[in-house]
Structure formats: C-alpha cells, structure tokens
Amino acid sequence: MCPQNAHSMPDADAEGSFGDPSCGDYLTVYIKVKDNHIDNISYLVFGCSASIATSSMTSVMAKGKGLDEALRITEEDIIEALDGLPESKVHCSNLGVSALRNAINNYLVVKRMEDSYENSNSGR
Q1: 1, 11, 23, 124: which one is catalytic?
Q2: Global pTM?
Q3: 92 is catalytic
Q4: Annotation says 23 is catalytic
Q5: How far apart are CA 13 and CA 31, in angstroms?
Q6: Phi-psi domain of 62 (left: phi exceeds 0; alpha: psi -120 through 50; beta: other)
Q7: How high is the mean pLDDT of the chain?
C-alpha cells in the first residue's frame, strides 16, 4: 500500500535492470555507494502490485547493507519479509533480486575500471 524508495536517481553510481517490458514486469534499481555500502537506493518498476511490493521490499532490505551482504539477498528473503506471496506471484520476487544484483555488478565493473585507470596513470 505504501511503496518505499520509488523514484529515479539521476546521480546514481550504478543502475541495474531486469524483466521483460513486453510482458509488463520490468524493474530498474538505482544505487549510491559509500564505503562499500548501499548508502541510497531507489527503483522504478512497471508491473503488478506484487512487482511493486517486492521491489519496495528489496530496496528496504538492501539499503545500508554492504555490497557483499546485499548480493546475498534471495527471492526467499523477499517473500519471507512480505509474509508470503500468492503462488502465481512468487516469480515477482526475482525482479528485485536480479535488478539489485545487476546494479551492484555494474557498480563493481565501473569501480574496477576506474581503479585500473587511476593505477595506470599514477606512474606518470
């Protein structure tokens, strides 16, 4: 009834998406990272009420966690935190977890590239 963190984040450090826009369920997660922790998180979701609920819960569970800890959030964790989902909507929990993992992995790739660039230019 009251989704949390539902908005875009123009200054995000990374974003990750998951879903199929042609079938209706699609999620983009935005993250800001500070000291290897998710300092801020938001999302935009297109889909049913279960997709909105699982996206909101994913954002609530991930905020403040270390990147490694956030990567370990599972679909089952989301379902349990919501006190269950109808069997026909269980697949919606995959949206949040997958988009979150994609955002974190995108952040790590960019960070690795930045670190590599800085290291290659530090000897000049």
Answers
A1: 23
A2: 0.89
A3: yes
A4: yes
A5: 6
A6: alpha
A7: 92
- What are 48-71's pLDDT values in tens digits? 999 999 999 999 999 999 999 999
85-99 average pLDDT score: 91
One-letter amino acid of 67:
L
Q: Supply 10's token pair.
A: 């123009």
Whether 63 contacts 40, CB under 8 Å: yes
CB 120 within 8 A of CB 34: no
Closest to 70 in 3D by CA, of 115, 9, 113, 14: 14
Rounded to the nearest 10°, the torsion over CA 110, 56, 39, 101 is: -30
> Exactly one of 92, 97, 100, 103 is catalytic; which is it?
92
d(CA 7, CA 79): 22
CA distance 10 to 30: 9
Q: Taking Cα atoms as reference points, which of 15, 19, 47 lies closest to residue 31? A: 15
- CB contact at 8 A, 43 and 59: yes
